[in-house]
Amino acid sequence: MNCRHCAARLKLELIDLGSSPPSNAYLSAAGLLAPEKTYPLKVMVCEQCWLTQTLDFAQADELFSADYAYFSSFSTTWLQHAERYVADMVERFHLGRDSHVVEIASNDGYLLQYVKARGIPCLGIEPTASTARASREKGIETLEQFFGAEVGARLAAAGKQADLMAANNVLAHVPDINGFLAGFTNLLKPGGVATFEFPHLLRLIEENQFDTIYHEHFSYLSLTALEKIFRHNGLAVFDVEELPTHGGSLRVFTQRAASGSHVITDRVAQLLARETAAELSSATGYSGFQSRAEKVKDDLLCFLIEAKRAGKRVAAYGAAAKGNTLLNFAGIRRDLIAYVVDRNPAKQDKYMPGSRIPIVDEAKLLAERPDYVVILPWNLKSEVMDQLRRAGLSDARFVTAVPALDIV
Question: Distance (Å, rounded) from C-alpha 403 to C-alpha 302?
């Protein structure tokens, strides 16, 4: 396979996680009677532009189907993050009723609801029918399709140019990264700003976050790679912030390279220097990741097997994509974890892809009171523990596997 950005031949392997189904392809009861389609899950690094990327087996329309079950609004922490983002952007870039905000991959309106509440005109672009429907129910204008260069040009011609474009946790999800970014250049006003949030590759490698790798993530992003890719597509980076979300993310601020007026902050050069020190522009920086992921797998399996032999009851919390990567890489099935609890009704009464572990609501967890609860979305560990303790689950012990096995 060739690099999705520069077309160089891919030779350097970061990790091979075996084969698994798409991480959000939750199964119905009827689906248990049919075979599942699985794909190899292998990540390569381009040694020309340093874009890290999955090998290309699944198409985007297979991964982001009409019944896509990830709804952003079910995380209180994420809603608070979105509300702070809107407040900060309104203040920093002086947005008001004469401005226009566009969010790409707007999901269920989790962020634009705060823009709308301020009386600022906004538009969501979201390809999955289930979440787009939820967004419209909040009164948010939502265009239901994948975004790219053609869509950006068409909206601009229709007078929909944007003062601010937000793209939270979507840049990693697009197979055609060049066409996607060209859409921002087409749609931004001359002085407009586009922000991108995504898990930081440096943190993924340093903190062993291999479970954030799944087929829906086509790319794993560093500022080193992105600065070149942005500029190739007519955008220039002028600022970057480090965020705690998703185990460590970046928020990158860009403007049109030809007309933007924002001054480049020192934080850009400082972060690039840190990535250089971590050897993200060298094959050395990507070595050893496979063995560290395998240690997590082995340690978790040993714990679950010992718990089963001791007669302990184990459940999991959070039917998250990262959880599916971990369960399938480790080969865990319902004999080791009885069920997974999730607050999202769209996932309840379904089954985890690959592992086929049933997904239930919190009531079952509180009624059965297992000895251990494995928190699969470890980035929400504190939120989940507090939530379950307030609900009355005070005697269970909580387990996370990444970056290393931890039992609280």
Answer: 16
Nearest CA to 225 out of 202, 243, 203 is that of 202
Residue 234 neighbours by CB under 8 Å, 6+ apart: 181, 182, 185, 256, 257, 258
Tell whether 313 is covered by a domain: yes
- In which domain, by residue range, is 309 found? 290-407
pLDDT tens per residue, range 271-297: 999 999 999 999 999 999 999 999 999
Using pLDDT thresholds of 50, 70 and 90, give the confidence band for residue 76.
confident
Q: What is the pLDDT of residues 363-402, one digit of tens each?
A: 999 999 999 999 999 988 999 999 999 988 988 999 999 9
SS3 string, 233-294, reads CCEEEEEEEEECHHHCEEEEEEEECCCCCCCCCHHHHHHHHHHHHCCCCCHHHHCCHHHHHH
Spatial distance between the Cα atoms of 55 and 39, rounded to a whole number of angstroms: 10
- Tens digit of each residue's pLDDT (9 = 90 or more) over 216-227: 899 999 999 999
Domain end (from 255, 286, 317): 286
How far apart are the C-alpha atoms of 18 and 215, rounded to whole Å? 12
CA distance 356 to 373: 18
Collapsing DSSP states into helix, strand and coil, what is residue 362?
Answer: helix
